């Protein structure tokens, strides 16, 4: 539901009981720390998430044999956090540890190995090493094709991720081909208002947006939004993303009043649903700042770009690429 403060409240109540009732190295305490870390991850508080994942990991290392799948899961989760923090070599290190356990503990076509290859591919994708990303996404896909039925949602995810790499490479026809394969599976496997169908429409819209086909992009973004409005509570962060993407199309077409309208709708949801220093709020402030810059209202543009920058400074490590983008955007306003 995206109600992170409520999730934390109940996970912490659970954790307090476990701490009193169980010995210090009990696996359920590791799981409890893991759950709290997951909420902080969703909130964008990556340092807190890392703190709790590491607590969980210390317990699990003492309590479990060295090749236990739960240790692989924890290494994987720590890897995901480092990836969010743009510490890609650390991310690869922990994903590799996770993968080594899975290779020993699982048969070669187990779906969890596919997930492992997928996550390594995602790090390379974020690093901009698209050939490596494709290599690992393809390995993941090969396992899933053997292990899963043809309309399994994880196969759709594989096609989706491969499509994403082609989109980053600017090979839009290939990107559309794989996004549409993903979409076809989801249409068969999922009910018509499932959020993953909305994700499919959103990704296809993103390709058309990158191609400059803005009417097509808007068509798919609006399909996305219609599903999300039915499927999700009104202040869910995914609705904010949907408004943001529609706003981006209007910004690109020079309809700045419409762009501001949708960017503001996105921002209002994020301010309600997310903590004040969440990176997604920084994106909202930045986008609003860019519209004001485009309309020549430089004082407003500067105010919003600086709000965005303050969040990035608080939430991200000092060498994160988003901080560089933030400085660049402030420079553009002054220019």
Describe the structure.
The chain folds into 3 domains: 1-105, Serine Threonine Protein Phosphatase 5, Tetratricopeptide repeat (Alpha Horseshoe); 193-273, Serine Threonine Protein Phosphatase 5, Tetratricopeptide repeat (Alpha Horseshoe), CATH 1.25.40; 275-334. It is mainly alpha-helical and 335 residues long. The mean pLDDT is 93. Helix 9 packs antiparallel against helix 10 (195-210). The protein is globular. It has helices spanning 4-21, 27-42, 46-63, 69-84, 88-105, 111-127, 130-147, 153-168, 172-189, 195-210, 214-231, 237-252, 256-273, 279-294, 298-315, 321-334.
Keywords:
single chain, 335 residues, mainly alpha, Serine Threonine Protein Phosphatase 5, Tetratricopeptide repeat, 3 domains, 16 helices
Brief account:
The chain is mainly α and 335 residues long. It has 16 helices and no strands.
Layout of helices and strands:
Layout: H1 4-21, H2 27-42, H3 46-63, H4 69-84, H5 88-105, H6 111-127, H7 130-147, H8 153-168, H9 172-189, H10 195-210, H11 214-231, H12 237-252, H13 256-273, H14 279-294, H15 298-315, H16 321-334
Helix pairs in contact: 1-2, 2-3, 3-4, 4-5, 5-6, 6-7, 7-8, 8-9, 9-10, 10-11, 11-12, 12-13, 13-14, 14-15, 15-16
TPR repeats: 30-63, 114-147, 156-189, 198-231, 240-273, 282-315
Keywords: Cytoplasm, Cytoskeleton, Microtubule, Motor protein, Repeat, TPR repeat
Subunit structure: Oligomeric complex composed of two heavy chains and two light chains.
CATH class of the largest domain: Mainly Alpha
* Low-confidence parts: none
Tally of discrete structural domains:
3
Beta content comes to: under 5%
Largest β sheet strand count, sense and barrel closure: none
The rough form would be described as globular
Order of helices and strands: HHHHHHHHHHHHHHHH
Helix content: over 70%
Determine the number of helices (DSSP H or I, runs of at least 4 residues): 16
């Amino acid at each position: 539901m995206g109600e992170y403060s409520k999730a934390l409240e109940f996970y912490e109540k659970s954790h307090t009981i476990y701490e009193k009732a169980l010995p210090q190295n009990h696996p359920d305490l590791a799981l409890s720390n893991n759950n709290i870390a997951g909420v902080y991850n969703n909130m964008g508080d990556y340092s807190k998430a890392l703190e709790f994942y590491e607590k969980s990991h210390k317990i699990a290392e003492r309590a479990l044999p060295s090749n236990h799948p739960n240790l692989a899961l924890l290494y994987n989760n720590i890897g995901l956090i480092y990836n969010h923090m743009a510490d890609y070599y650390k991310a690869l290190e922990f994903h590799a540890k996770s993968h080594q356990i899975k290779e020993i503990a699982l048969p070669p076509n187990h779906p969890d190995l596919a997930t492992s290859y997928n996550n390594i591919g995602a790090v390379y994708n974020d690093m901009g090493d698209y050939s490596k990303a494709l290599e690992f996404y393809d390995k993941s896909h090969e396992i899933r094709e053997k292990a899963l039925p043809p309309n399994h949602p994880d196969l759709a995810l594989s096609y989706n991720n491969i499509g994403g790499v082609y989109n980053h490479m600017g090979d839009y026809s290939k990107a559309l081909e794989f996004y549409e394969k993903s979409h076809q599976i989801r249409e068969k496997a999922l009910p018509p208002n499932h959020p993953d169908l909305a994700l499919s429409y959103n990704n296809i819209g993103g390709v058309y947006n990158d191609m400059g086909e803005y009417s097509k992009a808007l068509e798919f973004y609006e399909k996305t939004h219609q599903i999300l409005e039915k499927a999700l509570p009104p202040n869910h962060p995914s609705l904010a993303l949907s408004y943001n993407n529609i706003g981006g199309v209007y910004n690109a077409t020079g309809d700045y009043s419409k762009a501001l309208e949708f960017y503001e709708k996105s921002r209002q949801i994020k301010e309600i649903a997310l903590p004040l220093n969440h990176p997604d709020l920084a994106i909202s402030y930045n986008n609003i700042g860019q519209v004001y810059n485009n309309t020549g209202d430089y004082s407003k543009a500067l105010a919003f770009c600086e709000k965005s920058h303050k969040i990035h400074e608080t939430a991200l490590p000092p060498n994160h690429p988003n901080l560089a983008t933030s400085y660049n955007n402030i420079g553009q306003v002054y220019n």
